[in-house]
Design brief:
It contains six helices and eleven strands. By secondary structure, the protein is α+β, with helices and mostly antiparallel strands. The strands form two sheets. The chain has a five-stranded mixed barrel with strand order 1-2-3-5-4. The protein has a three-stranded antiparallel β-sheet with strand order 8-11-9.
Amino acid sequence: MKNAHLRFGHLTYTKVFKKSTTRFKVPLDRFLGEPDTNAQMKAHLISVIGGDTQIAAVSAAVINRDWFTIEAPDGSSFRVSLGGNAESYRGSLLLEGQKRPLRHLVAVSEELAQTASGKSTERTILIHDSAQFVWASLAYVHGVPGISEWADWIVDELKRSKAIQPLVGIGCRPVLVTGAKGRFMNCIGRGLRQRKLRFPDHNGPIQWNSLSLSELLLSEVA
């Protein structure tokens, strides 16, 4: 975690009124976006910290479908919006030596919120590209049978068929997986026929490898 702040981006919000303009910038530790045009992007997740007034303004802007400017650590920038029906969550961060806590806001697009709730669609947005995480997420979202040992082969097959595409991320390595349940079932069937995959030797409950989202995210700033 040393010097993790150097990997932060920034979110800038500008609101023009008739007689005044509001503008501020807050640190951004996580971002997940999907390119729309060269200068604009559909945001699926933003995570920012700041003061009470700033975070309240960002929360209101999310509800109003306002646009933000995201500045990445590499100097690139783009305009983003979370779109309609986005969800936001606020909390506090207590820092040693500080009298007042920082405020923290995480906002997610409607589509990402639906993915997290397990609603099956043909677009699965994931915050990390680890084969184990991708395969476990697909199995959960689509109700696909399988075991964790199949992860590497299945994810390689999905990449080969261009079913997995990288998204834009700050503090994470997001991907978009396209396809309905049938696509993943066909992939499993092909792997079994080719003897690339095999069923467990004995009947019984399947034990999946334990995955921690916090460990996946912290690996990006270690």
